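Pipeline run #58 for the internal structure catalog. This entry was flagged by the ingest filter as a single-chain record with no existing model, so it goes straight to prediction. Upstream metadata was stripped on purpose; only the residue string is passed forward. Reviewer on rotation: M.T. Logging verbosity set to normal.
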Amino acid sequence: MSAAIVTRELGKRYRSRWALRDCDLELPAGAVIALVGPNGAGKTTLLQLLVGLQQPSAGSVSLFGRPEPGGSAQALAQVGYVAQDHPIYRRFRVSELLHLGRSLNPGWDQDLAERRIEELGIPLRQRTGRLSGGQQAQVALALALAKRPKLLILDEPVASLDPLARREFLQVLMATVVDEGLTVLLSSHNVAELERVCDHLVVVADGRVQLAGDVEALLGEHRVLTGPSGGLPDGPGMIHVDRADRHAHIVARIGDAEPMPGWAARPIGLEELVLAYLRQARDPRPVPSELELSK
């Protein structure tokens, strides 16, 4: 599968602080990619570097084989971007936003934009400032899709929406993915919602990529091990340990290997997997040393 996004040693520094560092990614075309991490992890910085809103302090970015998207109008014409706060002109009518989009984008599909707005039941003469949060998000998505992009980047697009509006937004998004064959990079805190729609995962914490890969493959490689708290196994595949008085639960990357005698293994869920890597990033102590001390 060809790559839609490739980054090599990508980094962004603000004075003495690195917001993103040593970011190496190769994300497949045609995938729906979840970008997950805590606030301040570097997610928005990464997305802004991809679309050229910021320039990297180190490393490189390429989209669909074109280097330096920030300086390439051809590459950016293939990208649709929806920011978290849905920055649309609130005094504009919806029809005026569509006219602006048509004026600025050479590949603009006016029929597609009007059809999507009509399907949402949003009047073209309505001022966007009077729309609900969910409607504003849907208008922003319609504007991004009317560019006919190959890559759609969404930065927390449903963070401020109620559960019904979030579900409707994601339904429209996934219907478009099926119809158009888009590559989607979606940043969100809601792992449960991402699990239903995404097939690739990137976990970012403390300005670094902690985990990246195909969701199904990652879930197949990891297990939750349960066994006696006093005899913890050791090894490089141990990601995170939760200890109680009598039992311990370990998230481990063991593939098809059998756990040691006395330990039970079960499949892991996506949310458990993400939390384990975020906790590992938060605690800089190497897990094998911690396990040795517990014996």
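catalog note: The radius of gyration is 22 Å.
catalog note: The chain has two domains: 3-205, 219-294.
status: ready for reviewer M.T.
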